[in-house]
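To whoever picks this up:

The parser on our side crashed when reading a file containing two proteins. I've narrowed it down to the boundary between the first structure block and the second sequence. Both blocks are reproduced below exactly, byte for byte. First block:
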Amino acid sequence: MKNILLVLFTLTSTICKAQAGESVYAFLNLPTSARQIALGGVPLTLSGDVDQPLWNPATIDREVQDKVSVNYTNYLSGINLGSMAFTTRLHEKLGLFHAGIQYLDYGELTRADEIGNVLGTFKAYDLALSIGYAHVLKTIDLQLGVNAKLINSRIDTYSSFGVAFDLAFLYRDTKSPLKISLVLRNMGTQITTFDGSKESLPFRILLGASSRFKHVPIQWFVTIDNLQQWDISNPNPSNSVFEIDSNSIQEEEITFANNAFRHAVFGFEFFPENKLTFRLGYSYKKAKELEIMDQRTFNGLSYGFGLKMKNFEFNYALSKFHPSANSNTFGLVLNLDKK
């Protein structure tokens, strides 16, 4: 196990580098699964979850075979977010393949000219199609996975196409429920651009682990997010201070520890083996960026539940953004194998 971890950390440190500026196709890093969102948004080692390979293709295995899922989120300001996923075996010798769709529909937007005259409406959307495959290295308990994505983004009459790949490594401890995974997401490029200017994709590196408490029915998840960039802090305007003497605004000061904790996301699943499962997640980064001074808003928290029946599973998640703006996600998983 120590050798495997050394390889994963070495690979991470070799390719990690800071990225500046915004990226195109940012929707690729929005979680769409109700179970995943309830656990903080970025868990990497969910077992038997047909949605998980959209984030971590190394989790493609027999537990998700012949399952199909649909997720829908009523996001913010009339934006709709969703996904579909399916895993099947095309041939006995080829193993399992995972197919997925992610979409983000911005709805109708107001069209106006440069001086504000309303000229009508237009639409915008983001769409990604993915194919995933995993291979097990049995001698070292390591599973490798890869996703290939075809991406299309449209804003009014402007359109862009791109391709991206995910590369993932998953280690399962055969003597305990411990699982550790490293995922490199969205390595790729634009094929066609909106206006001739090529933009970078939202490359992201995550390292996650999960296990269960020995005598308590709780499964925990810890993810270290955004390993490709150390400083991920954004000062919260709510915490800025106006200095009367100098007539200037002093932005919130982000300490070393404050920035470090913004990389960590935690999730807990209560009674994971039961038909009814409860989930809780917390993102410190989200909590600090959405914080409102002198108010307890519980930003950064997400929670939900899962109801398992014989051939289907219903999942729900609520994610808090603001006291007056929450996001609800609904998910349905069907097991097509009636055996």
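<<boundary where parser fails>>
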Amino acid sequence: MNKYIAKYKGIHPGIILGREFDKRSLRQRPFALSIDEHPQTLNAITKGRRDISIPLALKIEEKLGMAEGTLAILQTYYDIHKQKQDLETTSPNMNILRKSLFWDTDIDKIQWKEQSSAVIRRVFERGNDSEKNEITRFYGRRKVASIMNSRQRKPYSISSK
């Protein structure tokens, strides 16, 4: 396997492309225009918000003198990495969470991603430390902190800011 690919396997190719621009002291806008691409598209790719298509990857590789297929292969490895993460984290470890926390619902029908706010609030209101740690591991510190710091108003109440 190419050393370049092995080194960056699992990282979004746009992040690597952004580093390459920095290394070569290239500006995104003129580069994008030189390959007949919208600057916004290239910017979204380098920020990791958009995937890179094979035709665009080929144009960029040719212009930068990179080996053909490098960015496309990196995109594929990134997609594989993302898919593996999604498969691993479809639900928290149910050996740690007590079913009694969710006494009012069928625990097998909880949509862990879509109902994250309700799950986090429930566990942090009624759960023990190991359950809180599991929910923090599953959702991430940032998301838990964001949900726990947001105040929910009661229906028909007036905010006292």
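After patching the parser it read the second block fine. The first helix runs from residue 3 to 8. The chain has two domains: 3-88, 99-149.
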